[in-house]
Amino acid sequence: MTKSAEKSGVPADSLYSRKPVFAVAPMIDWTDRHCRFLHRQISRHALLYTEMVVADAIIHGPRDRLLGHDASEHPVALQLGGSDPAKLAEAVRIAEAHNYDEINLNVGCPSDRVQSGIFGACLMLTPETVAACIAAMKRVSKAPVTVKCRIGVDEQEPEQALPELITRVLDAGADAIWIHARKAWLKGLSPKENREIPPLDYDIVYRMKERWPDVFIGINGGIQTLDQAEAHLAHVDGVMLGRAAYQNATILADVDHRFYGEASVEPDWADLRDRMMAYTERHIAHGGRLQHVARHMVGLFTGLPGSRRYRQILSTDANKPGAGPEVIAAAFAAVDFAGESERVSA
């Protein structure tokens, strides 16, 4: 085993120097800047990720729209898609001005549009390319450079493919590895099916941590609750929730207490309402629409009395012409936060 594969070179003051790390996974079409702003209001410490942004888009497209984020989002990581080391390095150079806390390379997304660009999960078939990309990104990045991968693709044997990938990217300077504990099937399964049908294999991720005890290794895939997340942390350094955190972001309210040592406090949902209304007002003033923000809030409060009416208001009224922050106030007023009759005051 090479020296770089034995120990990660994570800077002492980086976000990975403090363990554990709880993260909300990057999700295409979901974890945009409005989603991340909402999540940050609920958890101060959870690591948030952008949607995957293709390197070519950053180089040639609307950079401020693709890379812009609210200052409150930190710690926030930029996930890049690509397979050309020079283009990825140029994208990292451009992104430096936006002060992301981490740059992550997507080696796990199985969608058709990713495959057509020769990146995402199909890169697991060419670990030497991934290593070249990481090395190029590391040369220009001030932030930690990390990899998010699967345990293998198609007919690969994970016990061989995953260690080979990890060894190569650590030799190239990767600071941390996030592993989605499923294979990806590039042919025959849709992206949704790839999140559900390939069996989970958490044990192989645990074995990777045992093999590289000094390297930050985080786990992702099928984790639904904070109890499950906490159980994984007996074996790895970080845990990442995806759809479970998005579809019911209320669970993020206990993250700071359970994983970061903060005092346990009752969430101030009235304060969240007011902050989201103010944020939405600013967004609309700059030409945005309420729905851009409200669509990420629909999953809040699942299971509470009034949550169904809350969802109806946000799903229906937020789409109406001229809809403003008052729709958020009306939705919150429908929820019985005490479980009986006490409501958030209007």
UniProtKB/TrEMBL annotation:
DUS-like FMN-binding domain sequence ranges: 24-322
Enzyme class label: oxidoreductase
Keywords: Flavoprotein, FMN, NADP, Nucleotide-binding, Oxidoreductase, RNA-binding, tRNA processing, tRNA-binding
A GO molecular-function annotation: tRNA-dihydrouridine20 synthase activity
Binding site for FMN: 79, 148, 180, 220-222, 242-243
UniProt xrefs under InterPro entries: Aldolase_TIM, DUS-like_FMN-bd, DUS_fam, DusA, tRNA_hU_synthase_CS
Reaction(s) this enzyme catalyzes, per UniProt: 5,6-dihydrouridine(20a) in tRNA + NADP(+) = uridine(20a) in tRNA + NADPH + H(+); 5,6-dihydrouridine(20) in tRNA + NADP(+) = uridine(20) in tRNA + NADPH + H(+); 5,6-dihydrouridine(20) in tRNA + NAD(+) = uridine(20) in tRNA + NADH + H(+); 5,6-dihydrouridine(20a) in tRNA + NAD(+) = uridine(20a) in tRNA + NADH + H(+)
Residue numbers marked as site, Interacts with tRNA: 106, 192, 195, 308, 311
Function: Catalyzes the synthesis of 5,6-dihydrouridine (D), a modified base found in the D-loop of most tRNAs, via the reduction of the C5-C6 double bond in target uridines. Specifically modifies U20 and U20a in tRNAs.
Family: Belongs to the dus family. Belongs to the Dus family. DusA subfamily.
PANTHER family documented for this protein: FMN-LINKED OXIDOREDUCTASES SUPERFAMILY PROTEIN
Protein name: tRNA-dihydrouridine(20/20a) synthase
Species whose genome carries this gene: Rhizobium jaguaris
